[in-house]
Design a protein that fits this description.
Elements (H helix, E strand, L loop, with lengths): L3 E3 L14 E4 L2 E7 L14 H17 L8 E8 L5 H11 L6 E6 L9 E8 L2
Parallel strand pairs: 4-5
Antiparallel strand pairs: 1-2, 2-3, 3-6, 4-6
Length: about 130
């Protein structure tokens, strides 16, 4: 199977040995996005709402680089450092996702890179 690396300057650059996203087999696999400003590389926002907004913008930018949008996402995995923040996270997430909603798993984790509160990875289908 052929794999193609996807990279855009409109989303944070990879901070380790991974790709922003990989296109393979009719899908785009987007690495976990955290609330980093793509221009400065700094964490955006102090609240879960602000951080979720930035994560969704980063996901949108990666998809846009392939002429796709969030409507092409079929699965997300959400990592939260505090499950008690889920309702506030979900309000922002719902502003970006439309029906039919993608499948989703949400898990609470001890820590995330750079001390952020949220990380989201996604799988999109190529239309």
């Amino acid at each position: 199977m052929k794999k193609e690396v996807i990279s855009t300057l409109e989303a944070p650059q990879a901070i380790g040995p991974y790709s922003q996203a990989i296109k393979a087999g009719g899908f785009i696999f987007i690495s976990g996005q955290i609330p980093l400003d793509p221009k400065t590389g700094t964490v955006v926002g102090g609240t879960i709402e602000e951080q979720t907004e930035q994560v969704m913008k980063n996901l949108t930018s990666i998809l846009a680089s392939q002429n796709l949008g969030l409507e092409h996402v079929v699965k997300t995995t959400v990592f939260l450092t505090q499950m008690s923040e889920f309702p506030r996270f979900n309000e922002v997430y719902a502003k970006y996702m439309r029906t039919p909603y993608p499948a989703r798993a949400t898990v609470e984790v001890g820590k995330l890179p750079k001390g952020v509160q949220v990380e989201i990875e996604a799988i999109a289908v190529i239309a």
